[in-house]
Amino acid sequence: MLPTENRLRRRQDFTTAVKRGRRAGRPLLVVHLHREAAPDGGADRNSDFHPHVAEGLPSARAGFVVSKAVGPAVVRNAVKRRLRHLVRERLSRLPAGSLIVVRALPAAATAPYPDLEHDLDAALRRLLRSEPTGSAPTGTGR
């Protein structure tokens, strides 16, 4: 289970990560990462937008999207639990204030745990090594 301060819950947070963040696709999942800007713009917005702000930027927060295309509820929940566990171990590597959304693809339902781990690590490596200015290639390099 993810700690409360590390969970994405609001639709607006998911939308921000997906629409404004960078994306890395893998065969089993798609990861969206949005790096939060410095807190100098609108202190009142930050306290409303991030209820768990202690000092400066809040900790990284993660959300998961597992649609019915992945399988029935039992399978979707199992995939979500596996992804939550994997992401929880990697939250410390993410920049403070970042939003991450992990979307499971249908193949994730039958994938072994090490394959999910490999795809998540590969997607995060790609997103973290590239700068958000768009200088990284966005082709199909997998």
From TrEMBL:
<keyword id="KW-0255">Endonuclease</keyword>
<comment type="subunit">
    <text>Consists of a catalytic RNA component (M1 or rnpB) and a protein subunit.</text>
</comment>
<dbReference type="InterPro" id="IPR020539">
    <property type="entry name" value="RNase_P_CS"/>
</dbReference>
<dbReference type="Pfam" id="PF00825">
    <property type="entry name" value="Ribonuclease_P"/>
</dbReference>
<keyword id="KW-0540">Nuclease</keyword>
<dbReference type="GO" id="GO:0042781">
    <property type="term" value="F:3'-tRNA processing endoribonuclease activity"/>
</dbReference>
<dbReference type="InterPro" id="IPR000100">
    <property type="entry name" value="RNase_P"/>
</dbReference>
<dbReference type="GO" id="GO:0000049">
    <property type="term" value="F:tRNA binding"/>
</dbReference>
<keyword id="KW-0378">Hydrolase</keyword>
<dbReference type="InterPro" id="IPR014721">
    <property type="entry name" value="Ribsml_uS5_D2-typ_fold_subgr"/>
</dbReference>
<dbReference type="GO" id="GO:0030677">
    <property type="term" value="C:ribonuclease P complex"/>
</dbReference>
<dbReference type="InterPro" id="IPR020568">
    <property type="entry name" value="Ribosomal_Su5_D2-typ_SF"/>
</dbReference>
<keyword id="KW-0819">tRNA processing</keyword>
<keyword id="KW-0694">RNA-binding</keyword>
<dbReference type="GO" id="GO:0001682">
    <property type="term" value="P:tRNA 5'-leader removal"/>
</dbReference>
<protein>
    <recommendedName>
        <fullName>Ribonuclease P protein component</fullName>
        <ecNumber>3.1.26.5</ecNumber>
    </recommendedName>
</protein>
<comment type="function">
    <text>RNaseP catalyzes the removal of the 5'-leader sequence from pre-tRNA to produce the mature 5'-terminus. It can also cleave other RNA substrates such as 4.5S RNA. The protein component plays an auxiliary but essential role in vivo by binding to the 5'-leader sequence and broadening the substrate specificity of the ribozyme.</text>
</comment>
<dbReference type="GO" id="GO:0004526">
    <property type="term" value="F:ribonuclease P activity"/>
</dbReference>
<comment type="similarity">
    <text>Belongs to the RnpA family.</text>
</comment>
